[in-house]
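Whiteboard transcription, Tuesday session. T.W. wrote the C-alpha cells on the left side:
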C-alpha cells in the first residue's frame, strides 16, 4: 500500500485535534468562567462547562504523539529517497527550532491580539519543537529501545515531580523546563517527549509492521483500551501516578488528573485515548470518506494553530467583541464562526504548500 494512501487517517485525526483545540481556545476567549479558572484547582459549575474544558485534554497528547509519528515516518521516507542521515536529522532539528521561534515571537504575541508580548513563555508549540529536536537523536533506535525510553519518562514522571526545589532559586528554571510546570512553562519537556517517543513507536507499526487497515485499526484500539484500563487502575490506587485527589469513581474529580504538569495517570490515560482514536479513524476510513474534511486541517496543523489564535485575540481582546461575556453556547458559536473562516484558509494554504518549493512555506 502506498504511504500516502495509508496516511489519510493520520491527517484526519490531526484535523480532529485541531478543531477540538479551536473549540478549547474559543472557550477561553468567550467563556466568563476563565475569570475565575485556576489550572491547579479548576471548578466547573455545570456538565457543559466541564465537558468543554475536559475535551481539550486530548489535544496536547494528540499533538505530541502525532508529532513523534510524523517525524519517524518522514525521517525514513527521506532516507529511502536518498537523503543522508545527518541532512535528514538537520531537517527536523531546523523545524524544531523554527517551532520554538514561532512560539516565542508570533504565538506569544497572538494570544493578546498582538497587544503584548511574552517572549520567554514556553508553551505547546515550543514543547513540540523541543520534542522534535530530541527525537532526532534517537530516531534510528530500534522501536523497543524508543519504547523503553518513553516508558521510563512517562512512568518515572511521578518520581521526578517529587524532586524538591525552591521557586526562588535558580533550580526552578531546569525543573520547570523539563519536569514541572510554572510561570513560564506549562509543558515540561521530558514527559511530553515521552509521548512523542510513543508516537514514533506506533508509527513503526502503523506504517511498517501492520500491513492492512483492519490490522492497524484492531490492534491500535486494543492497545488504546489496554492503556486506558491501566490508567484507571492507577487512578483507583490513589497513590503512584496520581497528583490530585478524587471523591468517587465517575465524578469530575476522578477524571481531572492534573495536566499542568502532567502526571503518569494523565499521560497513560490520554496516550491510550489517542491510540484508540487513531485506530477508530482508521476503521472508519475503511468504509466511508465522512472524515475526509478533517484532513484539510490535519495537513496544515501549524498554519491552523498560528492563524486561529490571533483571529480570536483580535476579535475579542483588541476589538472588544464578547470577550469572556458568554458561557458554553457562546463558546460553540464562536467556534463555528472561527471554523467558517479557517477552513477555506487551511484548504488554500494546503494547496499552496503542496505546489510551492519555498523553504519558509514548507516549514509552516
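and on the right, the sequence the group agreed on:
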Amino acid at each position: 500500500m502506498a504511504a500516502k494512501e495509508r496516511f489519510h487517517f493520520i491527517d484526519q485525526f490531526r484535523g480532529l485535534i485541531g478543531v477540538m483545540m479551536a473549540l478549547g481556545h474559543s472557550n477561553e476567549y468567550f467563556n466568563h468562567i476563565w475569570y475565575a479558572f485556576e489550572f491547579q484547582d479548576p471548578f466547573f459549575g455545570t456538565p457543559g462547562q466541564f465537558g468543554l474544558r475536559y475535551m481539550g485534554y486530548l489535544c496536547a497528547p494528540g499533538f505530541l504523539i502525532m508529532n513523534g509519528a510524523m517525524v519517524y515516518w518522514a525521517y525514513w521516507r527521506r532516507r529511502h529517497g536518498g537523503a543522508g542521515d545527518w541532512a535528514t536529522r538537520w531537517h527536523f532539528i531546523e523545524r524544531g527550532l523554527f517551532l520554538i521561534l514561532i512560539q516565542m515571537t508570533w504565538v506569544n504575541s497572538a494570544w493578546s491580539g498582538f497587544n503584548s508580548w511574552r517572549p520567554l513563555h514556553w508553551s505547546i508549540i515550543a514543547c513540540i519543537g523541543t520534542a522534535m529536536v530530541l527525537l532526532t537523536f534517537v530516531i534510528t533506535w530500534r522501536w523497543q529501545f524508543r519504547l523503553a525510553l518513553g516508558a521510563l519518562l512517562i512512568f518515572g514522571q511521578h518520581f521526578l515531580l517529587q524532586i524538591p526545589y525552591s521557586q526562588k532559586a535558580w533550580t526552578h528554571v531546569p525543573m520547570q523546563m523539563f519536569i514541572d510546570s510554572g510561570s513560564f512553562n506549562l509543558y515540561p519537556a521530558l514527559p511530553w517527549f515521552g509521548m512523542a517517543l510513543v508516537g514514533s513507536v506506533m508509527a513503526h507499526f502503523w506504517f511498517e509492521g501492520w500491513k492492512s487497515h483492519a490490522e492497524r485499526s484492531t490492534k491500535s484500539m486494543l492497545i488504546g483500551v489496554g492503556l486506558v484500563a491501566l490508567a484507571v487502575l492507577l487512578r483507583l490506587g490513589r497513590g503512584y501516578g496520581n497528583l490530585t485527589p478524587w471523591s468517587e469513581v465517575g465524578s469530575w474529580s476522578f477524571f481531572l488528573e492534573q495536566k499542568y504538569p502532567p502526571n503518569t495517570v494523565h499521560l497513560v490515560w490520554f496516550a491510550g485515548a489517542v491510540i484508540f482514536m487513531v485506530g477508530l479513524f482508521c476503521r472508519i476510513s475503511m468504509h466511508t470518506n465522512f472524515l475526509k474534511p478533517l484532513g484539510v486541517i490535519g495537513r496544515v496543523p501549524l498554519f491552523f494553530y498560528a492563524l486561529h489564535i490571533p483571529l480570536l485575540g483580535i476579535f475579542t481582546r483588541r476589538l472588544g467583541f464578547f470577550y469572556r461575556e458568554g458561557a458554553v453556547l457562546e463558546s460553540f458559536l464562536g467556534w463555528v464562526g472561527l471554523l467558517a473562516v479557517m477552513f477555506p484558509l487551511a484548504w488554500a494554504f494546503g494547496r499552496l504548500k503542496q505546489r510551492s518549493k519555498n523553504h519558509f512555506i514548507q516549514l509552516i
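Someone added at the bottom: The CA atoms of residues 184 and 224 lie 32 Å apart.
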